[in-house]
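Retro notes
What went well: the complex prediction finally ran end to end.
Inputs used:
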Amino acid sequence: MTTVIEIANMLLGGLAAGMVLFIVSVGLSVTMGLMGFVNLAHGGFAMIGGYVVVLAMNRLGVPYVAALALAFIFTAAISVVFERFLYKRLYRAPELDQVLFTIGLVFMMIATVTLIVGPETQPINLPPSMQGQLNLGFMTYRTYSIVLIVVGVVIMLGLWLGFERTRMGAQIRAAVDNRRMAESLGINITQLFTITFAFGSGMAALGGGLGAEFLGLDPQYPLKYLVMFLIVVAVGGLGRITGVFYASLIIGVLDFTLKKYLPQGGTVFIYGMTILLLLWRPQGLFGRPA
Amino acid sequence: MSVAPVQSDNPAARALAVRHRFRWWEVLPWLLALAFYFAFPRYLGFGTELLITVLFAISLDLALGYAGIVTLGHAAFFGAGAYAVGMLAKNEIWTEPISGLVIAAVVAGAVGFTSGLVLLRTTGLTLLMLTLCTMGLLEEIANMAADVTGGFDGLDSLPIKPVFGIFEFNPLYPNTQYLYVLGVLLVCFVFVRMLVYSPYGHSLTGIRENTLRMNAVGAPVRRRLMVCYTISAAIAGIAGALWAQANAYVNLSVLGLDRAATVLIVLVLGGYGRLYGGIVGAVAYMVLSHFLSKAYPTAWQLGLGLLLVIIALFARGGILGMFDNLMQWWRHREKTPP
């Protein structure tokens, strides 16, 4: 029984972390798949979301859920401005320019947050209802983690339905698979991308707010987790929502387990695994061959 | 490279035929570097760091600027060279500096070759990811193998023998370090200059501009990229080894994303694929950073970010590119009187 509980412990903790990874990375995967834009600043939007949540709660007394909604709206709005005025100019530019531009953006975000809020780690106070333990019948586990898993599954289902069952989702899928053909059919790619970008950044902000409790929130956040988000997207395959979902869960559980049992070599294992995997399938575990 | 007699009097053909020749102004950077030695004896530590950055940026220019391999993990090779020299010196296995550079170049070249076998099969995001992962992997290994690498603290007070058995490295008065690094930089620079103006160098530019076409004309694209990546890694390794020797210590900072990002910024600030971009960029970046980053760290980061955004959006050629544009505009203006 103890081994079962131990395994369940690891799975639940890993799944909760994986859900946060998924919520943050899904937008990155779709925008990269849609426009082929190497957006290294995506983690920055997650950080902005985290800061909006923390500041709204600690300074304005906004409740947690409302603060999350506020983070989504605020970040999505900012990202529309960025996309329309800056990102747009580099869609057809060489990768190197996109990399430079987004690294520059990350630096500016880090500096701005440091100037406005300060360099220290921001504490987040979860509402009391999420701080306790939840009885699952055979064991108890942190309510917060269970909430993360449920929210993640709900978001996954919502995105999947939106992707598979709505007109907009069909348009995005068409544009990911063959952009020129989709454009010829009269799909307004520019508008589609602005909406997707804003939505993806909003999701990142949501993930940043939800995960702030265990990822920690300080100005270095976007650089600290950059590689992690990119690994999820590369492993999951570009523009594949289900791929990102599975990849996030696998990496979340692996990371959580390795950190517990192999605190020294965990990162080495994940990097090594990613290298081998991308060698075997450059398009990612769930992506379609180019 | 032998110059075939130019058939036509076409100015473009003439310019192409002589473009590898030395120009008078190419002596200037080296004269300035020597003048710096005499003019600012108190800033030689800074100067040494600057020269090492130049060498590192030139190694990146070969891979990124000429062959078009977009990498975010070039510090992997800098670190490999630095740790090779550091570990050999700390255990008193090998402390002679110049042959130490050769060892570092071989080690870093081997790392470059091995990772290149894997990396260069891919392009785009996958390539970028793999370069990041390789560097992360090496950094973690260096962190874990604390018995031999010193882990997070690194290895300090490395016993490095005097250059040629005469000139000692003095940590307080880095005169020897400065001239030694300048000499190595000159040798490496001349080598890279020869390389990029050789037919091999031109084929690299061809691969950067249009890989498909180079494949179609029968150029061995993969092999050329492998050779280029290996050479670039070896030179980065030399830069790392110089860093370890000049400072007499190694730590994890030689392998991190910070260093990889910095050298990329230095190169694009100067202008990539231009040979002199690394020099101009390193001078501009290091001088600015020296005066601003300690006094106003946050404003410095904000400014740096803004600079990158501006370069990516409006000035892709960096400082040298802007200079070129200015010269063109000037010549154009002279030719067409108002």
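What we learned: Residues 8-280 of chain A form a domain with the ABC transporter involved in vitamin B12 uptake, BtuC fold (CATH 1.10.3470).
What to try next: split runs per interface for comparison.
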